[in-house]
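User: I need a structural model of Pseudouridine-5'-phosphatase from Cercocebus atys for a docking pre-check later this week. Nothing fancy, just the predicted structure tokens so I can convert them on my end. Input:
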Amino acid sequence: MTAPPLHYHPITHLIFDMDGLLLDTEWLYSVAFQEIRDCYEKKYSWDVKSLVMEAAQIIIDILQLLMSKEELVEESQTKLKEVFPIAVLMSGAEKFIIHLQKHSIPFAMATSSGSASLEMKASQHKEFFSLFSHIMLGDDPKVQHSKPDPNILLAYAKRFSPCPPMEKCLVFEDALNELEVTLATGMQVVMVPDRNLS
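Assistant: Understood. Predicted structure tokens for Pseudouridine-5'-phosphatase:
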């Protein structure tokens, strides 16, 4: 049985995820969580990370940590504050964004990160992030539910003026669950997976 033919639409607007796509931050989560795990002599492997990413209760259950979900979140946030400012741009990200700007292609960023998190992650890249026409954050009042819920993408598309048809938006993502949600919005999507994923 062959796959159904793909139907692409002309693209007029681009939306980017941030972590693991524009900023190389995924490994920083691993560093922070591994420091916590080291106290318990546990390894925070890619297999564990790919299953749970940032779900604190699942991490505690799988690794059998003797701490509450709140303690894990608090401790990981402390460690992430230390490492986020060293985040670097992903290879090719700056060149691509400058190319889009040069050719007047509307683009923006939609991330589940909140304002404080973005401030830390982008502290060394303020000029780069100033190129985006809009940045929608997970703590934006118009976002009722964070990614992978499609609300953030739909709310974001409405910030373009005028609002484009959803099928003319192209979203760049790095997570499979977010890819599926994006397709459900009617937007087109390009997945740029982490090299550790199969």
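Before docking, keep this in mind: Strands lie at 13-16, 23-24, 88-89, 107-110, 135-136, 169-173, 188-191.
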